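Predicting holo structure, iron/sulfur cluster bound.
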Amino acid sequence: MEVIYYSGTGNSRYVAQRTAKIINAECIDLKALIKDNKKFSFNSEDVVLVTPTYAWRIPKIVENYLLENDLSKIKRMWFLMSCGDEIGKASRYNEKLCEKLGCEYMGTGQINMPENYIAMFEVPDKQEAEKIVERANEKIDNFASLIADRKKLPANKEGFSDLVKSVIVNPLFYKVFVKADGFTVNEKCVSCGSCVNNCPLNNIELKDGKPSWGNNCTHCMACICYCPVEAIEYKNASRGKFRYRIEALDLKE
Ligand SMILES: Cc1cc2nc3c(=O)[nH]c(=O)nc-3n(C[C@H](O)[C@H](O)[C@H](O)COP(=O)(O)O)c2cc1C
Ligand code: SF4
Ligand code: SF4
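Done. Tokens:
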């Protein structure tokens, strides 16, 4: 078994690593592969994909990356989606992805983790985020034990509004909101390069020691949330908000 994950601010990595430990599987970081533009050939028949939820579906960059790689050995695929609220009808697209990849769809598990989308929503403070992760642990462990037994994950309760969000709002969301235009940097910047190193799409370069954003952004929030001096803002939306990333939390085992 293999657990493959993509993570902007650490939630999905946390879910992946906890799951991998329980099911005794290797854990592979897709963000590093995407960033380095490396191909990957999966060796396992059973794969668990762990991702954040972006507009009620798995992130587009993950789906695109998987479709560009050799996944012919995979026979069964489980999906674990970390989210701040809910995953809508993501299952429909995960099932379609399995059809394209020629493997059996083994279900989608929703795991509520701290919201990280500081460019758009309120995010929990540190204490609240720690409580959310603590609550998520039980869910992760339950999904992992089903996966360990090669069982399908139970279907989520999904209604018409979920369909609208995943089918109609998702493409509009990418078109209208997912742009790097809103990022700015202030005088606190110490030219450390963390934003450059954290960007999965290599969309940032330092010009005269300050970050400059290009046009290839997936709104993962890594640049803004990992800046050690909080020198990055997203329009006015991020002002005064906790820079959420899982490393900022004190988590119990
Ligand atoms: C671009 C973007 C879109 C998001 N869309 C959703 C969503 O549709 N539903 C939801 O519940 N959370 C949404 N979130 C919140 C994240 O899915 C959630 O915080 C996730 O656990 C972050 O995972 P990561 O730390 O591994 O990147 C979104 C976050 C971002 C950055
Ligand atoms: S992470 Fe922050 S301090 Fe470091 S270069 Fe980027 S903006 Fe500047
Ligand atoms: S520019 Fe920032 S938000 Fe956009 S993909 Fe890169 S790290 Fe993520």
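The radius of gyration is 18 Å.
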